[in-house]
Amino acid sequence: MNPERIQNEGQINPARFSIKDSVRYMFGEQRLLFVLIGITIVALISNVVVIPSSSQSEPISASFQVAVSTSVPRRIAYELPTRNFDLVNAAGARIPLGLKSKSLRVLVTGGSGFVGSHLVDRLMARGDNVIVLDNFFTGRKDNVLHHLRNPRFELIRHDVVEPILLEVDQIYHLACPASPVHYKYNPVKTIISFITLFSSRLRYHKTNVVGTLNMLGLAKRINARFLLTSTSEVYGDPLEHPQVETYWGNVNPIGVRSCYDEGKRVAETLTMDYHRGLNTEVRIARIFNTYGPRMCLDDGRVVSNFVAQALRKQPLTVYGDGMQTRSFQYVSDLVDGLMRLMEGEHVGPFNLGNPGEFTMLELAKVVQDTIDPNAKIEFRPNTEDDPHKRKPDISRAKELLGWQPSVTLREGLPLMVSDFRQRIFGDLKEGGSSMSTF
Ligand SMILES: NC(=O)c1ccc[n+]([C@@H]2O[C@H](COP(=O)([O-])OP(=O)(O)OC[C@H]3O[C@@H](n4cnc5c(N)ncnc54)[C@H](O)[C@@H]3O)[C@@H](O)[C@H]2O)c1
């Protein structure tokens, strides 16, 4: 029976209406096409997108003496084709099929280093489009290898001492050789990442001065928000304990560590001048000792040195009497703090560190308990300008960023040990090192 016969007869006899007739009826006169168009229209109308504001503004305490940003509206843009995981945005709102989700474009200088690569992991997981700039002085491509095939990720070999033009919404400026072994080896670059390379120490100056100037210039030009990763070293050998952000520090301006300490102090000054004078949106974090997977092996930082030594069955080298103190923050806590700072409304500076305070001998004991109870301790003369005490006061970060660390040393250390174990026994070329309590 065909549809024409049905119309003519006015009535359908179900017994005589076969499956073959039904199929023929459905495909006749493009009925299926009309049904599909109808379904598509209904789906588009019902999928309404609500994208929440990304700003997490918090009340500003009247007693807070630190600069507060002038609220330059941030651009939220950069659309790339979405994948399945983009169909539900951060707030759980539904995004219509075929439309593109909005995500931030974020530049991370020094993004293939220890802290930078963990930050990149978090930004990528959030759905951002991330560009890493790195000259691989201390960073490793391996740290970001797992993102290389992702279209939202770009890795550019570039020295921040040279200007560059990129279009981004946020800049996390981490590029700087951060360990004593590296900055004592190449101090001029550290300060000059800011001048001509006269010696290795100039590298630090160049990076901290010229590199920071270049990145601030970029932020100003493209109206991006800029975050500087400064350091607890700006407090030098502190005369106040614990260290509060309002403390101005006690730094030897001509010592072996000064290329790093003074370099970061200059970087903070430049950052605040761009903020006050040019209205650039800035954030400043003062990072205290941080540890975790992907730290450079043998870079002279005390946690990495103790762990590497214990794994290699070498004595743990303690400088001085081992009674100097430090606080140790697990890297995931730091990354959380950096992102809250970037997304929040306060310029800072903010101390980001774990207030738990350990002497070097106590740290050695935790390493012995975690890796090798029979590991020996070897005492050596202390290094020049080694601070006696270091402990952050994080009241400000608690109050204004709602942040505090959650991973204890005894929880975090084993996570780092498995990474070190794999890298040390997989790469026997790693050599010996000198240690510091930096
Ligand atoms: N890890 C800590 O305990 C700690 C403490 C205080 C401050 N910080 C700060 O945090 C940031 C990251 O430190 P980290 O521990 O990850 O150090 P890291 O050495 O692992 O990372 C620094 C990265 O910057 C890159 N870099 C250095 N100079 C550069 C230049 N001129 N141009 C481009 N790239 C350059 C390196 O190759 C490396 O990838 C640094 O600014 C450091 O001063 C870290």
TrEMBL record:
The keyword RNA-binding does not apply. It is a single-pass type II membrane protein. Gene3D superfamilies: NAD(P)-binding Rossmann-like Domain (3.40.50.720). Pathway: Nucleotide-sugar biosynthesis; UDP-alpha-D-xylose biosynthesis; UDP-alpha-D-xylose from UDP-alpha-D-glucuronate: step 1/1. Its EC number is 4.1.1.35. Its cofactor is NAD(+). InterPro entries: NAD(P)-bd_dom (IPR016040), NAD(P)-bd_dom_sf (IPR036291), UXS-like (IPR044516). It is an enzyme of class 4 (lyase). GO terms for biological process: D-xylose metabolic process. SUPFAM superfamilies: NAD(P)-binding Rossmann-fold domains (SSF51735). It is found in: Golgi apparatus, Golgi stack membrane. Keywords: Decarboxylase, Golgi apparatus, Lyase, Membrane, NAD, Transmembrane, Transmembrane helix. The keyword Transmembrane applies. One of its GO terms (cellular component) is Golgi cisterna membrane. Residues 107-414 form the NAD(P)-binding domain. GO terms for molecular function: NAD+ binding; UDP-glucuronate decarboxylase activity. The chain crosses the membrane at residues 32-51. Catalyzes the NAD-dependent decarboxylation of UDP-glucuronic acid to UDP-xylose. Necessary for the biosynthesis of the core tetrasaccharide in glycosaminoglycan biosynthesis. Belongs to the NAD(P)-dependent epimerase/dehydratase family. UDP-glucuronic acid decarboxylase subfamily. PANTHER family: UDP-GLUCURONATE DECARBOXYLASE, UDP-GLUCURONIC ACID DECARBOXYLASE-RELATED. This is UDP-glucuronate decarboxylase. It comes from Lactuca saligna (Willowleaf lettuce).
